[in-house]
Amino acid sequence: MSLRLDQLSVDIAGRRIVSGIELAVGDREFAGLVGPNGSGKSTILKAIYRVHRPSAGRVLLDGSDLLSLRAKDAARRVAVVTQESTSEFDFSVREMVMIGRTPHKGSFDRDTEADRDIVDGAIERVGCASLAQRRFNTLSGGEKQLVLVARALAQEANHLILDEPTNQLDIHHQVEILEVVAGLGVTVLAALHDLSLAALFCNTIHVLSDGQLVTAGPPSAVLTPETIRRAYGADVLVIDHPDTGTPHLIPRRAKPATHDHPAEGTAARSPARPDAPA
Question: In whole numbers, what is the pLDDT of the chain averaged over residues?
């Protein structure tokens, strides 16, 4: 397996957030990580991209312990795209994408022609060449996320971690970003909120609840009303997507509202005033 979590546990401020996570993502597979808020999705991903140190267990890349790698070597293997962000500096789009070349350079190395070609290729590949001269902080949320995907591409890592990259984006940009990612041909593990979108793009889905793995498998086997009720405490209707056959989830109301309507053919009356004529 390309990426494997071996009994991963993470403690934060003395509290166990995730416990005993066993998870494997195959080479060039697009895997989804789903679960309710607070279930541990971001904590797991931050352990992979080395923000949180595991309290127990290991993160393995092609059998090697990720924590045994130097930071620069790890960055050559794992790229990260998080939620929409702003930059403290007034970078252009091209300058923002060029940051992805940092793991491949020494401290005082200048940008080379090869670096510029890789950056231009990454920008072109995600379809934002028209934005290359724009300032990053002037872009829309969806445009920023495409630029961050381009930066990850310029990093030339063969593992891509997506930490809720489509959160707060409209449906057009959500689909656009996931389409780009699905076409990259790299190993992807993505935390996603929209379960129907996860079913459309992911080969495998891992479901979390209360810091533990509930189940994992193909979307059709995992995204069932029973699993959603168990993990989320919500009732859903699951139908087949008419184009792809993948699960499409429709929320159910806890208790349908009822409204009193006048009988057909009659008009609602207001109470007569006491002084009204008979």
Answer: 89
Give the DSSP letter string of 7-27: EEEEEETTEEEEEEEEEEE-T
Nearest of 41, 48, 40, 52 to residue 66 by alpha carbon? 48
Q: How far apart are CA 2 and CA 25, in angstroms?
A: 6
pLDDT tens-digit map of 100-158:
999 998 888 899 999 999 999 999 999 999 999 999 999 998 899 999 999 999 999 99
Cβ atoms of 152 and 190 closer than 8 Å: no
Is the residue at 16 inside a domain? yes
The predicted-structure confidence for 183-234, as pLDDT tens digits, reads as follows: 999 999 999 999 999 999 999 999 999 999 999 999 999 999 999 999 999 9
Structural contact between residues 97 and 122, judged by C-beta atoms closer than 8 angstroms: yes
Residue with the larger pLDDT of the pair 242 and 90:
242
Instruction: Give a yes or no: residue 51 inside a domain.
Output: yes
How many domains are there within the chain?
A: 1
Tokens representing residue 72 in the block: 């620069």
Cα–Cα–Cα angle for 248, 254, 257, rounded to 5 degrees: 110
**pTM of this structure:** 0.86
- Only one residue has tokens 């707060």, namely 168
Range of the domain at 138: 3-251
197 is written with which tokens? 């979108």
Specify if 269 maps to a domain.
no
AA identity, residue 235:
D
CATH number at residue 227: 3.40.50.300
Has residue 278 been placed in a domain? no
